[in-house]
């Protein structure tokens, strides 16, 4: 069967998934609003900060009235849905600006961080894991496994601070944080790339152990499969056997792992953003959660849900592409 | 298998080579120095405003770098004229203030400041549709009018002696904001003021870039640019300070002391009016007994708290008016160390006799109470635990409880709470609401329902009387009464700690309020800073 034949049912799957996605997103947003309603935090006090202790109750009540946060939750929810349909994501009470502009200013940096780190972690772990599996029990294998366990046991923020201490303070090679040089007059890509090396590296390294260990085990397993033994017996080069035969079969469950690992990657990104003072979604998400900022939380939750759904879909499609036994139109 | 090895080796070699390339490309460390275009100063803080608009609570106590008020404060926190030609005066009845505007002051967009701008600014704060918490502090304002283009008249509902202190609020240009929804105006991100710096750019979560206002009425700043970096995490801020990115950064005392030994840095420990103490509610059956409150006041070891918990960055506190204020009363200052013997004697005399488990008992009631603190505040937690340990020594059992504010709020009438307040500008500002019986049980104002006629009268006189000597006498009575009644266990005043590069010149620390971020920090006069 040709590759295009294998993806023949992709369009039907896409349609089916989109139909499922709507109720999932709706349920997520309802759940988010219900949780928010259960939260006892007063957004007006949160907004006032230290002034909450000197502001009169009348003053705080005016703020709540301005934002409509005293309305019953169903009313707030319907208003929010109505605005959403018209393309208005609402007003962030914790950042005091439109939700759309909070997302526009910040989501790009978070996506960039996560995207590059994920690509790096995947490529790195596929290579290293395969190489370790090829000589199972060898020096490289043992060193890699020890390293993976060690990194897995380190909290991300600790790893970040250690990386700053080594690469920024002791060696002086890389900046310790920020998106651009603190005195820069603009945002140039070279400057941003320079500043993102450490955070991307730390996020990739912190997420890699899972992937590395998994690839190593899966490849080591498939090295004993009949088709791999046969390939070897035919005298194919080691590289072809490893990457063309053994890794290929091991790749399938790996795709699933990537899909399920995405939320953890997002969590890691929040911490990395904090440690490297990057203006991504991490810090505002925390502030929105602490400040009962419904509109911003809802938008971030929805966006995250959509990304996870899309990632699952992509995983399934990739499955079909990688494994001839999987059929989408079945 | 045999063919594998070269592959591995080749792979390793190419990875190493790629790594070298990456590192070589980045080996030039950034040195913040604008030698070409004059000096750029970089300061770092954790506290990012959510709007750069004085109407929405940005820099309301002045020193906001972007805006000016009618008046400002000098290095000793004394009021001086700013946009006003001379310090305005309160009329003898304490209800009218007339300010004359300086001639020819220009906003950053080149338009001229006139009295209607001042009127617009204050009316915007008072507008209920505007999300401003400053309104609570200006509720004495009945009207603000501009009889001519250079005169502003404030009329007050009641006499309010410290009203001039409220005139530090930055003035915004009416032309750019009138007719707009101030809560959502683009002005809040890209503001236009009269101050020493214009806003060049603001990347929320990252940094605020300010450039010198060439035509600043009080003289062009001595530097060309100021960058305020927003770094929320204390450890990260310390590390970036260490990496040489900042000229000045606000850091917690323990992290700041790490820079003490390094000659390249200077640590500033700036006195504040920000105190921490335990509110003792009269609704608690044990704490209702004045003997228990006074005994606790003698039993706490303030000196140990300052050295142990604050790392030396603080002073013992005995009342709500800081020792740096002209209104402070020295007679209430007690011993900074604990006096458990005297405390025990007080309790013995009041009938609290030693009971089971080392806890005193009176009429079958054990001397126990709960001390709440906001769980996320490690400083208050440490202070609560220290109070617990000190109370144990005199036979009073304290149960510390770390809670969220929403859990604390309903319990403030009956459980003790570690609170913090303080402003250096006028004793009326916080204490009037905190200790007047008319605010008893109203939210955070007087949560413990403390009632004293003497205190009420003294606070009211401090507000009504214009004569500074009469005010000083009133606040002396107020402080003495608090020291006798002990509605609060005042523990410590904090010091704000900053680390500076040794090369920075022109720093003039002044007593700070609780809030210190972009505005009103050590860099309140950064327009006169230079680098040697």
Description:
Chain A is mainly α. In chain A, 75% of the residues lie in helices and 1% in strands. Chain A contains 13 helices and 2 strands. The radius of gyration of chain A is 24 Å and the shape is globular. Chain B is an alpha+beta fold and 532 residues long. Chain B folds into 2 domains: 269 residues, 3-Layer(aba) Sandwich (D-Maltodextrin-Binding Protein, domain 2), CATH 3.40.190.10; 224 residues, Dipeptide-binding Protein, domain 3 (Roll). Chain B has 13 helices and 22 strands. In chain B, a hairpin with a 5-residue loop joins strand 2 and strand 3. In chain B, helix 6 packs antiparallel against helix 8, helix 11 packs antiparallel against helix 12 and helix 12 runs antiparallel to helix 13. The radius of gyration of chain B is 27 Å and the shape is globular. The N and C termini of chain B lie far apart (65 Å). The N terminus of chain B is likely disordered. Chains A and B meet through helix 3, helix 4, strand 2, helix 6 and helix 8 of A and helix 1, strand 10, helix 4, helix 10 and helix 11 of B.
Just give the CATH class of the largest domain in chain B. Answer: Alpha Beta
Number of helices of chain B: 13
Q: State Rg of chain B.
A: 27 Å
Distance, first to last CA of chain B: 65 Å
What would you call the shape of chain A? globular
Mass-distribution shape of chain B: globular
Helix-strand makeup class of chain B: alpha+beta
Largest sheet of chain B, described in full? Answer: 11 strands, mixed
Mean pLDDT of chain A: 81
Largest beta sheet: strand ordering of chain A: 1-2
Give the N-to-C terminal Cα separation of chain A.
15 Å
CATH architecture of the largest domain in chain B: 3-Layer(aba) Sandwich
Give me the secondary-structure category of chain A: mainly alpha
Total individual domains of chain B: 2
């Amino acid at each position: 069967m040709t590759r295009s034949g294998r993806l023949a049912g992709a369009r039907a799957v896409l349609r089916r998934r989109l139909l499922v996605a709507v109720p999932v997103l709706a349920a997520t947003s309802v759940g988010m609003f219900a949780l928010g309603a259960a939260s006892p935090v007063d957004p007006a006090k949160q907004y006032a900060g230290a002034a909450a202790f000197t502001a009169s109750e009348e003053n705080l009540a005016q703020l709540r009235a301005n934002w409509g946060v005293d309305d019953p939750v169903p009313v707030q929810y319907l208003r929010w849905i109505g605005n959403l349909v018209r393309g208005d994501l609402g007003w962030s009470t914790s950042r005091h600006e439109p939700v759309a502009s909070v997302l526009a200013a910040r989501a790009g940096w978070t996506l960039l961080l996560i995207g590059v780190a994920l690509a790096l972690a995947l490529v790195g772990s596929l290579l290293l894991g395969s190489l370790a599996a090829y000589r199972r029990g060898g020096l490289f294998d043992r060193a890699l496994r020890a390293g993976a366990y060690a990194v897995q046991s380190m909290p991300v923020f600790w790893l970040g601070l250690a990386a700053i201490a080594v690469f920024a303070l002791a060696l002086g090679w890389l900046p310790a944080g920020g998106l651009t040089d603190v005195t820069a007059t603009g945002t140039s890509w070279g400057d941003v790339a320079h500043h993102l090396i450490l955070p991307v590296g730390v996020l990739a390294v912190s997420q890699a152990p899972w992937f590395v260990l998994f690839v190593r085990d899966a490849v080591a397993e498939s090295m004993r499969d009949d088709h791999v033994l046969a390939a070897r017996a035919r005298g194919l080069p080691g590289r072809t056997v490893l990457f063309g035969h053994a890794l290929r079969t091991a790749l399938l469950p790996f795709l699933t792992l990537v899909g399920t690992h995405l939320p953890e990657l997002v969590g890691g990104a929040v911490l990395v953003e904090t440690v490297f003072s990057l203006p991504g979604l991490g810090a505002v998400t925390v502030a929105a959660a602490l400040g009962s900022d419904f509109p911003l939380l809802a938008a971030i939750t929805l966006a995250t849900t959509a990304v996870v759904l899309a990632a699952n879909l992509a995983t399934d499609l990739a499955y079909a592409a990688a494994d001839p036994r999987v059929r989408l139109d079945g | 298998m045999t063919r594998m090895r070269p592959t591995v080796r080749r792979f390793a070699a190419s990875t190493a080579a790629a790594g070298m390339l990456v590192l070589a490309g980045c080996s030039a460390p950034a040195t913040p120095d604008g030698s070409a275009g004059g000096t750029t100063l970089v300061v770092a803080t954790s506290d990012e405003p959510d709007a750069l608009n004085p109407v929405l609570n940005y820099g309301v106590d002045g020193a906001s770098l972007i805006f000016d008020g009618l008046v400002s404060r000098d290095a000793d926190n004394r009021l001086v004229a700013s946009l006003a030609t001379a310090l305005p005066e309160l009329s003898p009845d304490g209800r009218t203030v007339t300010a004359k505007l300086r001639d020819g002051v220009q906003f950053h967009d080149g338009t001229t400041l006139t009295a209607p701008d001042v009127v617009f600014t204050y009316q915007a704060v008072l507008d209920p549709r505007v999300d401003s918490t400053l309104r609570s502090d200006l509720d004495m304002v009945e009207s603000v009018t501009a009889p001519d283009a250079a005169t502003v008249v404030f009329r007050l509902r009641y006499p309010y002696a410290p009203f001039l202190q409220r005139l530090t609020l930055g003035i915004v240009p009416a032309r750019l904001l009138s007719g707009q929804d101030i809560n959502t105006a683009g002005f809040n991100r890209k503001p236009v003021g009269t101050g020493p710096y214009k806003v060049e750019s603001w990347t929320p979560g990252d940094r605020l870039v300010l450039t010198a206002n060439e035509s600043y009425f009080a003289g062009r700043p001595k530097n060309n640019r100021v960058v305020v970096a927003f770094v929320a995490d204390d450890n990260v801020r310390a590390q970036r300070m260490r990496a040489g990115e900042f000229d000045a950064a606000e850091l917690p005392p323990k992290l700041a002391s790490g820079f003490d030994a390094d000659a390249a840095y200077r640590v500033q420990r700036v006195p504040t009016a920000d105190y921490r103490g335990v509110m003792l509610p009269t609704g608690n059956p044990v704490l209702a007994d004045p003997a228990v409150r006074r005994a606790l006041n003698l039993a706490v070891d303030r000196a140990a708290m300052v050295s142990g918990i604050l790392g030396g960055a603080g002073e013992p506190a005995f009342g709500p008016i800081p020792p740096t204020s002209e209104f402070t009363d020295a007679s209430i200052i007690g011993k900074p160390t604990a006096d458990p013997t005297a405390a025990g004697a007080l309790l013995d005399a009041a009938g609290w006799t030693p009971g089971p488990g080392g806890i005193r008992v009176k009429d079958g009631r054990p001397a126990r109470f709960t001390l709440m603190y906001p769980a996320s505040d490690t400083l208050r937690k440490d202070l609560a635990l220290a109070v617990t340990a000190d109370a144990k020594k005199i036979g009073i059992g304290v149960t510390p409880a770390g809670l969220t504010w929403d859990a604390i709020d309903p319990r403030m009438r009956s459980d003790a709470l570690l609170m913090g307040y303080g402003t250096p500008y006028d004793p009326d500002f916080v204490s009037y609401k905190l200790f007047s019986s008319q605010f008893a049980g109203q939210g955070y104002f007087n949560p413990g329902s403390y009632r004293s006629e003497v205190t009420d009268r003294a606070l009211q006189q401090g507000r009504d009387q214009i004569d500074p000597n009469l005010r000083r006498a009133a606040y002396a009575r107020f402080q003495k009464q608090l020291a006798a009644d002990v509605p609060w266990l005042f523990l410590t005043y904090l010091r704000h700690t900053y680390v500076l590069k040794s090369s920075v010149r022109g720093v003039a620390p002044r007593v700070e309020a609780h809030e210190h971020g972009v505005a009103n920090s050590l860099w309140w006069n950064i327009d006169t800073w230079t680098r040697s």
